[in-house]
Amino acid sequence: MKEIITKTVTMLFLFSVATGCIGVVAGCGSIIQRQSHLLTYQICVPAGCPLPPSTKLDLVTSDNSAGARVSNCTVTAKDESVVYQASTLIFPSKNRYLVIAPPDAAAQVFAIDHPRIPHPTEWVAWQPPLYTDTSRMPWWNAMNDQGKDQRNTDIPDDCAKIRFKVEAWHGMDAVPRISR
């Protein structure tokens, strides 16, 4: 449990730094806190096709992206599938995509279909990718709606599926402290 909390806090901090929202840590978080929510997503793959630990996970919007690796996820193995779970902060944005990019395979691009202004939701239904992308920078293509010639909408049966939920984020005060 301690390791999961540490990874989550680290990912939240890195995302805050990457998006210029370090004001939360510096005490200017009231405005950001009202606008931010925690997106928790799960990726389900068949048990025989686990994702390599170096697989990149990018949450992409029309303004920025936040990345992680599968090795940072919580993993749950079931009889016929493996489920990876991670969380990241989200802010108001027009478009959101999750890009799953294994090192030696086409990236899978999923729509995070959630209103521009985030609000809490329960888990949505499992959904397949919109398309696969064979380019070197699938996150860039999703962010800028480019590379349409490198997209394939013929989705194989063994592709990943995702689902997500959104929760209100109450700032660093809501994160359990880790004693050393």
Walk me through what this model shows.
The protein has one domain. The strands form two sheets. A six-stranded antiparallel β-sheet has the order 3-2-6-7-8-9. A four-stranded antiparallel β-sheet has the order 4-5-1-10. It is α+β, with helices and mostly antiparallel strands and 180 residues long. The two termini are 14 Å apart. It has helices at 2-18, 23-26, 29-35, 138-144; strands spanning 37-46, 56-61, 65-69, 74-77, 81-90, 96-101, 107-111, 131-133, 151-152, 161-168.
Runs with pLDDT <50, length 5+? 17-33
Tally of structural domains: 1
Sheet with most strands: 6 strands, antiparallel
Helical/strand content category: alpha+beta
Helix content: 10-25%
- State the strand order across the main sheet: 3-2-6-7-8-9
Q: Roughly what is the average pLDDT, rounded to an integer?
A: 82
- Radius of gyration using CA atoms only: 16 Å
What oligomeric state do the depicted chains represent?
A: single chain
Q: How many extended strands?
A: 10
H/I helix tally: 4
Q: What is the percentage of strand-forming residues?
A: 25-35%
Distance between the termini: 14 Å
Silhouette: globular
SSE ordering: HHHEEEEEEEEHEE
